[in-house]
């Protein structure tokens, strides 16, 4: 699947620039994770690409179809779980999924069968006949995900699908999405960077409506100054070196971030002094911090005078 944007901009209320001339050209096989601070523009981008919101200027394309001019065609290709989506409280989960499927053109019988299957995949089979208002927050979120999964749309947008899900449910959803990506493309946003890293074949960092970087985890890691981390599990470890970043974690643990040569250069010293340690590649959280950590707090929200 292809996603392309050309100088895509969105300004809300004539002053709040959520997207600023965003240009990207992505050939996606699998999962596209979009990450960024609160207010970075992730939801705005998803709403434009999924034809829900008009851009202020610029263009967006899904599989070379203009999302404004060919919105009707694009809509048949996509399914979306918006960030704030909740099921209608008076419908049961099975009614929710199957009515969505019938609206997409499935027969009543097919819709019911597919609905049941999707609810089972999300672990909601015991709840299929309950009114949705009786579901917990996480169960409601799972129901919304079940709804789009059941549709078999080739392009699926999930805006923070795992927010509010317990750890085990989140991991189950990861497995499901990994299975799903074999025959469709998934565009997801998340604040769980572990999730963005595990799932994302391509990862985009967005900040204040602008593209910071895009690529696989190895590409992003290759762009930061401190791509390795040494985790020393010893109270006696001390180091002074301007080229590494030292982060004391507890009395007995210190993390040291640095280049490969710097980090591996410390290993003989640790071995000689019989200190326990591990060396790892920097995680997406570490990388994200290096990209954005030095900036001032907050997104591009307008400051109001009180
Ligand atoms: N409907 C709206 N009207 C006015 N401003 C909006 C609207 N929706 C979003 N914004 C503004 O646009 C900017 C980007 O918001 P957006 O929702 O796209 O961010 P986000 O990256 O999805 O953030 P989060 O991680 O908190 O969901 C923010 O500054 C926000 O205040
Ligand atoms: Mg959002």
Helicity, as a percent range: 25-40%
Instruction: Look at the structure and give the mean pLDDT.
Output: 93
| Amino-to-carboxy terminus distance | 47 Å
- What ranges have pLDDT less than 50 throughout 5 or more consecutive residues? 297-306
Topology-level CATH name of the largest domain:
Rossmann fold
Question: Any idea what the CATH superfamily of the largest domain is called?
Answer: P-loop containing nucleotide triphosphate hydrolases
The CATH first-level class of the largest domain comes to Alpha Beta
- Structural shape: globular
Q: State the oligomer.
A: single chain
CATH architecture of the largest domain: 3-Layer(aba) Sandwich
Structure commentary:
By secondary structure, the protein is of the alpha/beta class. The protein has two domains: 2-221, Rossmann fold; 225-281, 2-Layer Sandwich (Alpha-Beta Plaits). It is built from ten helices and 14 strands. The chain has helices spanning 42-49, 71-77, 93-103, 108-121, 137-150, 167-180, 193-199, 217-222, 260-272, 284-292; strands spanning 2-12, 16-27, 31-35, 57-62, 65-66, 78-81, 155-159, 185-189, 202-207, 210-215, 228-233, 245-250, 253-258, 276-281. The strands form three sheets. A six-stranded mixed β-sheet has the order 6-7-8-3-9-10, with helices on both faces. A hairpin with a 3-residue loop joins strand 1 and strand 2 (16-27). Helix 3 (93-103) crosses helix 4 (108-121). The chain starts with a strand and ends in a 14-residue tail after the last helix. The structure holds adenosine-5'-triphosphate and magnesium ion. Residues 12-13, 16, 18, 36, 38-44, 83, 299-301 line the site of adenosine-5'-triphosphate.
């Amino acid at each position: 699947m292809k996603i392309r944007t050309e100088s895509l901009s969105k300004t809300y209320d004539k002053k709040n620039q959520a997207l600023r001339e965003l240009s990207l050209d992505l050939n996606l096989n699998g999962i596209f994770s979009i990450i960024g601070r609160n207010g970075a523009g992730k939801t705005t981008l998803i709403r434009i690409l999924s034809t829900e919101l008009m851009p202020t200027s610029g263009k967006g394309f899904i599989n070379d179809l203009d999302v404004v001019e060919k919105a009707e065609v694009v809509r048949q290709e996509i399914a979306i779980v918006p960030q704030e989506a909740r099921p209608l409280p008076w419908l049961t989960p099975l009614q929710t999924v199957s009515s969505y499927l019938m609206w997409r053109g499935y027969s009543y019988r097919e819709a019911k069968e597919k609905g049941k299957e999707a609810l089972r995949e999300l672990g909601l089979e015991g709840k299929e006949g309950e009114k949705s208002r009786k579901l917990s927050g996480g169960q409601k979120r799972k129901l919304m995900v079940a709804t789009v999964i059941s549709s078999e749309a080739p392009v699926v947008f999930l805006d923070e699908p795992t927010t509010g899900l317990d750890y085990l449910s989140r991991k189950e959803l990861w497995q499901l999405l990994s299975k799903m990506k074999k025959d469709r493309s998934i565009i997801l946003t998340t604040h769980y960077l572990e999730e963005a890293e595990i799932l994302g074949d391509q990862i985009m960092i967005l900040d204040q409506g602008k593209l910071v970087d895009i690529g696989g985890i190895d590409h992003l890691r290759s762009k930061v100054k401190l791509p390795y981390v040494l985790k020393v599990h010893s109270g006696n470890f001390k180091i002074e070196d301007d080229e590494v970043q030292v982060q004391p974690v507890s009395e007995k643990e210190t993390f040291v971030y640095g280049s490969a040569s710097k980090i591996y250069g410390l290993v003989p010293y640790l071995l000689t002094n019989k200190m326990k340690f591990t060396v790892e590649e920097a995680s997406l959280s570490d990388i994200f911090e290096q990209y954005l950590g030095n900036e001032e707090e907050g997104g591009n929200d307008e400051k109001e005078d009180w």
